[in-house]
Amino acid sequence: MHIRILGSAAGGGFPQWNCNSPRCREARAGRLTGERRTQSSIAVSGNGRDWLLINASPDIRQQIIDNPVLHPSGEVRSSNIAAIALMDSQIDHVTGLLMLRESRDPLPIYCTSRTEEDLRTGFPILEILKHYCGSRVASLPVDGSSVQPAEVPGVRLTPVPLTSKAPPYSPHRESPEPGDNIGLLIENPDNGRRAFYAPGLGEIGEHLHRWLSEADVIMVDGTTWTDDEMARVVGGRKTAREMGHLPLDGPDGMIAYLSAYPAARRILVHINNTNPILDPASAERARLQELDIEVSRDGMDIEL
Ligand code: MLT
Ligand code: MN
Fold first, then answer.
1. Could you tell me if the CB of 243 is within 6 A of ligand 1?
2. Could you tell me where the beta strands, DSSP code E, fall in 189-250?
3. Using CA positions, which residue lies closest to atom 6 of ligand 1?
4. CA–CA separation, 261 vs 258, rounded Å?
5. How far is the CA of 181 from the centre of ligand 1 (A)?
6. What's the pTM value of the predicted model, to 2 decimals?
7. pLDDT at residue 210 is higher than 90
8. Does 91 contact ligand 1 (Cβ within 6 A)?
């Protein structure tokens, strides 16, 4: 099974369009151009031909151009993106559905009923798509059971409900329930190898241990280094935790948590443009290297 990281940044990407911080400036023009990242998405395939797009980023058009495995190889209007799975209804994870509206067939979408509800009400993309290609939504369970999307042979998914946050436009924002945000255990049914993927992870509950301890690869939320980082770098008050993201540093941060799984390949995804790890010369990046925790990049491949 192949996993391709299409976009390794959080919402806004790196550099972000209106960010004039020294790091974003450098990513546009100077030392950090190699660190540029598009917004959060991966693709998974069992056979190397039919791909499951996990999250549809606003950058999907560029991501397809940059990743030849996703180029159409069939009829004059066709795609090797065979299905789409969504982990929540956040802008950076679903807006790309609008860019796929030229599809000849209704888009096959796997998401929880909570995410579907958001996408029919607060951010009614699925309603808008009715005027274009339409969609065919299959509900993802949140009871620990698995699904094997028929469109993507050789990929098994187990959705894992997470404590994070539904987006501000969601009718569920202040009344969280399982299914607002999920992680995915992505499994190769032929050899049993597994990756756990969670770009938005605000709190680590006991129930996650079971899934993480079974994973050969852990790809998790690396949005910020500290909780107050966004407020310090760009102003305002929002903390990472309030936005549903566990910071990396600190005694109860993501790095400390990952230390319980030294045997797994550990990779950070969904990296915000305020995060100091975006600078390869930073002390924070050196610390990750010491701990053998990887920073994902656009175009990175993971084989399972
Ligand atoms: C998030 O992950 O918290 C959101 O994607 C933030 C955003 O881009 O609005
Ligand atoms: Mn996000």
1. yes
2. 194-198, 217-221
3. 11
4. 6
5. 12
6. 0.97
7. yes
8. yes
